[in-house]
Amino acid sequence: MANTIIGILLLLSFFLFIAYVIRGGNLMVGFFVMAVLWCVIGLVPFNEAVNDVFAKPALNYGPTIIYIAFGSWFGRVLVDTGIAGSISMQAQRVGKKRPVLASILVCLITALIFVSAYGVGSVIAIGVILLPILHSLGVPKNIAVSAFTLSIGASMYVNVVLFNQIKAFFPAVTFTGRYLQFGWIAMGVQIVAVIIFLLINSRKIHAGATEVVPLDDEGHKTKILEIQHGWQYLTYFIPVLPVLLNMVFHWDAVPALLLSTLIAMLLTGYFTHMKKAIAFMNDTIQTAVSDIAGLIFFLMALVMFSAAAQKNTVRFEPIFKAILPHSTLVLAVAIGILAPLALFRGPLHVWGAGAATASVLSATHLFSPWFMLPLLYIPSILAVSADVTQSWNVWALSYTKLDGKKFITTAVPVAWVVAIINEVIAWSFFGH
């Protein structure tokens, strides 16, 4: 009887948390308060809560923060060396005679850059180049912004920074060949969907009126690398180098990111003078760390809440055993169909109310963590790609003055179809 009452109270607090998130509440504060509440409601002993919920999870998360820091630094170097900007500008060379092909090229370039780059700062730096290019080609605003954000979302399947955030729920899963095989395929599915989306709307693109969008709407400046030597074209492969080092040579992400960062600096001339190299490293490191400062504390609160959820596993396990299908295929398809519940930080968005869903499911051990991570990652990437609560999507809408409702109705159907397909692919990799 006591377990039933406690379970009901925990579920009630969970639904209140969902309402709080949907109303725009601060996620870091929300997760911390939930961690406290679930310790109190779940009758977790005080010393156990202090050590196992608020101390050990944060301390054990240190290695993941290192991955995020190196990933953020690499992304910042891509932008500040001009590599990302130079890759972006190549799309203009296709010309206005082939606007659909040029639009597809812009999306492929976007996905290439964000395989390693991450964060709203990087999105803004690239967006102020690529979005005006799309508008100048005659791509309507809703199609241009949707294609741009969906392309970013596609690369998140193999982006080490975002992967290490969801790994907080499933620490047993590693960013290695087994996951990356799925990640590249899932990314490919979303890229193909974006290309089909542009082809379906090709008549609107050809008939669209060109529009000039200011390059520096909010004071953000993007550096563009001027190619002076033929060998500098090698810089165009830098964004995918860390992932290739991991897949081919099985390198850990830290040395892969570090070597890629140093190669990027070398090929762009920042090692010609030691003082120049040190000054550049200091500046990019400071910017990179400041970019993720808020994210780090958010993740600290998240892992504390996840630990609190694990302490209450016994309260939820009978409920989940009763309501969840035993077939992993049925579960995967169901999550794909319900994937839009990740929108507005809903119960399938792991960086929203879905953190509770992920924490509880992870703690019950009903399914393999290798299966559960992609299962919940996919709807979360739908939200990253097409949700108006995602920071860089908000920026894109503001920058282009696109109505949020029109963005959702344009982008979500594409992302939804991708989510269903990728859930089936995830099942084929990890659900047996």
Automatic annotation (TrEMBL):
The keyword Cytoplasm does not apply. The chain crosses the membrane at residues 6-22, 29-46, 58-79, 100-131, 143-162, 182-200, 253-271, 292-310, 322-343, 407-430. It comes from the Bacteria. Keywords: Membrane, Transmembrane, Transmembrane helix. The keyword Membrane applies. This is Gluconate:proton symporter.
